[in-house]
Amino acid sequence: MVDPRRRVPRTDTILADPRLTAATATEGRAAVKAAVVATLQRVRDGELEPEAVIDAVLATLPGGLRPVLNATGVVLHTNLGRAALSPAAREAVVAASGPTDVELDLTTGRRAKRGRTALAALQRAVPTAGDVHVVNNGAAALVLAATALAAGGEIIVSRGEMVEIGDGFRLPDLLESTGARLREVGTTNRTTVADYERAITPQTGFILKVHPSNFVVRGFTSAATVSALATLPVPVVADTGSGLLAPDPLLPDEPDAATTLADGAALVIASGDKLLGGPQAGLLLGAADLIERLRRHPLARALRVDKLTLAALQATLTGPATPTWEALRLSPEALLARTQHAQTLLAKAGVDAEVIASDAVVGGGGAPELTLPSWSLSLPPAYATRLRTASTPVVGRVERDRLLLDLRCVPPSSDHLLVDMVIAVAARPTPDPADPHAATPPGRGSADSAGSPPAARHPAPRGRRPAEPAGEG
Ligand SMILES: *Cc1c(COP(=O)(O)O)cnc(C)c1O
């Protein structure tokens, strides 16, 4: 019997492994060396085979944000960072990452309006907006509007629109944190124009309309429209959430900026990383005098966006279709063909996967009622953890004790990578019994629900009702 201590590799030999030199470049030599020393101790203690040292070291390094394949069937998955940027937006981010003319006019050599080309692109996309402004996210846009237009005064809002946007954050709390008071009107299910009208006082800053982006109220309901509210003598601020700039026939229930402005809203607020398919951002579009008040407010400086956001936003607005747009419109036939091809490749490698019909959803607080007919690879649930911890993590979802991998949100050029990851983890010797149901990150049904896809339609018939509504985050 060989004493296992005789087989312990040297620290320097391990550190010279190319995979670890690559890690050293991003994580620093001290962190990598500490991980190697600790891991070699496990070999000495007989807990780990010497051959497994490199993998074990890599597994203990904290790492940065890692690229993940989104096989959840949730197009805008909050826990996976919502919208995937288009290749054009990614290139723009890289190009802007060094010194860039974000606030300089290169022709005159003078200081110029920050992000003017991105703002101009947004303005061109919604020509009816008097002016536009961009802040860090939708919540920041709300805070800026509430602070600049209603601090010390009142915001009138329907009791049916006092929503939680996810992860425990509630719009009423967010608005009141600015020093504005909320004047609640109507009831959960019904609010009329007269309710708003009666609440108007000299203290009123604006009427807020919030799109119920992550839930629906059905039955005996009524709400005042933006066009009806626009007849009242105070500005209407519409939080549309989704980020659609113009109507989209695929999403008839989602509001859009152009229509909401045409209906008479003074200001429209939306997120950049939802249906628009861009970077995290809060878009403000509307009356030029209101936008100017927001832009001039001291808080605007604290909420201003980074040059990378401006670069990505501009490329999203002017570039080709976004991955979000494409994932929403992917035909079931094309998806089935890709899924079957993946199944064939897996079968050749000895991995048995089924192809089943499933439903995908928009997620990210958009179109809670809409399901997209989809197809998935179905695998035993033990694959969930293994694939999440693969060298390129693959995140699917577990339903009815099967792991479903929906290729809808996987770039077609990454289908092979996904197949390779499944084959790689299928070869892992010991099944991992731990945590078989955690295929998706926390979120299903929780406060920060990123949009839980409804149950697969297999073996249930097509068209059954979703098990739970898509949430937000
Ligand atoms: C998503 C959403 C928000 C929050 O926007 P973020 O960009 O996530 O800050 C606010 N209101 C509505 C209606 C939303 O859908």
Automatic annotation (TrEMBL):
It is found in: Cytoplasm. Its cofactor is pyridoxal 5'-phosphate. Its EC number is 2.9.1.1. InterPro entries: PyrdxlP-dep_Trfase (IPR015424), PyrdxlP-dep_Trfase_major (IPR015421), SelA-like (IPR018319), SelA_trans (IPR004534), SelA_trans_N_dom (IPR025862). GO terms for molecular function: L-seryl-tRNA(Sec) selenium transferase activity. Keywords: Cytoplasm, Protein biosynthesis, Pyridoxal phosphate, Selenium, Transferase. The modification N6-(pyridoxal phosphate)lysine is found at K274. Pathway: Aminoacyl-tRNA biosynthesis; selenocysteinyl-tRNA(Sec) biosynthesis; selenocysteinyl-tRNA(Sec) from L-seryl-tRNA(Sec) (bacterial route): step 1/1. The keyword Protein biosynthesis applies. Residues 5-44 form the L-seryl-tRNA selenium transferase N-terminal domain. It catalyses: L-seryl-tRNA(Sec) + selenophosphate + H(+) = L-selenocysteinyl-tRNA(Sec) + phosphate. Residues 429-473 are annotated as: Disordered. Residues 436-458 have a biased composition (Low complexity). It comes from the Bacteria. The keyword Methyltransferase does not apply. Converts seryl-tRNA(Sec) to selenocysteinyl-tRNA(Sec) required for selenoprotein biosynthesis. HAMAP family: SelA. Belongs to the SelA family. This is L-seryl-tRNA(Sec) selenium transferase. It comes from Paractinoplanes aksuensis. The gene is selA.
